Structure formats: structure tokens, C-alpha cells
Amino acid sequence: MTATMDILRNLLYYSAECFYFTGVMFMRKKIVTFAAAFILSASAGIFATGIGPQMNFNPGFTPGYTDNTAAWGFACSAKFDSVPVYWALSTDGSYYSYKGDSSSGDVNTTLFNTTLTGDYWVMNPTINGIWKWYWGFGGAVSTSITANGKNFYLKAGPRAVVGMNWFFLDGFLELYAQGAIQPELELAFGEDGTQNGVVRVPFYFPFNSGVRFWF
What we know:
eight-stranded antiparallel β-barrel, single chain
């Protein structure tokens, strides 16, 4: 009886060891398969969505207005596989001055902007190796508010963009730099609009540089 129990105990022990070993090997195989698939897709450049930070420098001028201070800021840039458009949601700020009423004279404040741009790249040919260039067109819409809380602005307009980009790590990492020409129609509300006109046509020449990670 004792010998039979020992045999059964050994059978159960080795069966458990076998199941454990099989499970470990199965999980390892799954992990290796997943890693191999990821590496193969990376080496083939199969990345559908790109997203990353962007730095902005946005000089411009408005005909008939003396204040033409450039704005500095940051953005989140994104390209989704389902839409052939490169998006950027930006926020920036700049020194701003406008003519107040006769009693206050010039008013000095800070202007905060939030802008959404979308660009369609017509071409993105290779210059040499990982170095490419592109051009395209798109549009921009933005809202602005002054720090003194007395003014609000709405702006929208078309834009033409040209830039260069570089891909690293088999297409996983993209660096880019671009410039644009961006005329807009602006509506000014508040003290600035009352004193200096509601409708304006500013011209902007934004410069951006950033990085996108492709997944």
C-alpha cells in the first residue's frame, strides 16, 4: 500500500512539473512571437499613428497696426492613419499692445493664443537617405484672449507649408522642421475691437520644429 501511494505521489508530482514546464514554455513562445512581430513591423516601417511635442515661433504683422510681436509656444503634433492630415494643437503667448480710449492711451498686456492647424502634404520625396522634404497646404483656426480680460479674438485662414523631416530607428522616430505662410481673417471683440476695428487681416509666418513617435 505504501509503495502504491509513493508511486501515485510521484506521478502527481511529475505531472504538475510537466504542466508547469509546458505553461512556462507556452508563455515564453507567446512573448517571443509578439516581440518578433513587433521587430518585423518596425523594420518594415509599418507605423500608422505619429504623435509628439512641437516648438513654435510665430512672427507676423497686421497691416495698419504697429504691434507685431512674435509669439512663442508649444504644441502637440499628430498624424492618424485614417486621415491624410498632419494636425497640431498649439498654445503660445506674446507681448501685446493696442490703442485704448483717449483717457487710457496705449494698453500693454499679454496675448494668449490657442491654435489648431491641419496640413495635407502634397509631396514628401527623399533628398538623401533618411532626409526628406515636403510641401503642402492646409488651414488654421485660433482663439486669443488678453491677460487683462478685456479682449477676445477669433481667427481663421489658409496656409501653405514647406519643411524637412528625418526618420530614425526604422521609421519609429521622426524629426522635422517647417515653415508656413498663413494669412488670416481676424475678428476682435472687446476694448481693442471697439477702439481699433473689429475686422483685420493679419499675416503670420510660423516656424515649427518637433519630434513624432510612430506606433
